[in-house]
Amino acid sequence: MTTTHEERPSVGADPLSLPPQPVPDAVTAPFWAALAEGRLAMCRCEHCGLWLQPPLERCRRCAGPTRFTDVAGTGAVYSFIVQHRATVPGYLDNLPYVVALVELDEQAGLRLPARIVGIDPAEVRCGLRVRAEFTELPGGDFTVAVFRPVDGP
Ligand SMILES: [Zn+2]
């Protein structure tokens, strides 16, 4: 006699329940490697010091070589949305959540998209001071930066 029992994967193992995973390439791999070590690093020109986001192999101002350099991880919300419906997998348990462009303190215009955590989404405002922290992205081997409000200017 045969059985028809089927193993059902747990919800956590269902790829459709997981957030999209990064796909590092030669240019962005150092960004992800730094995050895995609990550092936020952005692309910077070694000649003139210009920060470049998105990263480039050569500086757009002086054509100098670039490398990923640690930033302080502090900045301010430049713009944001409050996500009320799940449009990408992996965040059903976190609705509503905030996705922001965070302008880092190192340079005007140096902005990184990230989630804002630790605050009621209704309280988020442009200019809100935030600091990076690091969290594992479910479903893979990646660490991502999220930003949490801090006191002070
Ligand atoms: Zn340069």
UniProtKB/TrEMBL annotation:
Residues 32-64 form the ChsH2 rubredoxin-like zinc ribbon domain. Residues 70-134 form the ChsH2 C-terminal OB-fold domain. InterPro entries: ChsH2_C, ChsH2_Znr, NA-bd_OB-fold, Thioester_dehydratase-like. Residues 1-21 are annotated as: Disordered. PANTHER family: BLR3430 PROTEIN (PTHR34075). This is Putative nucleic-acid-binding protein containing a Zn-ribbon.
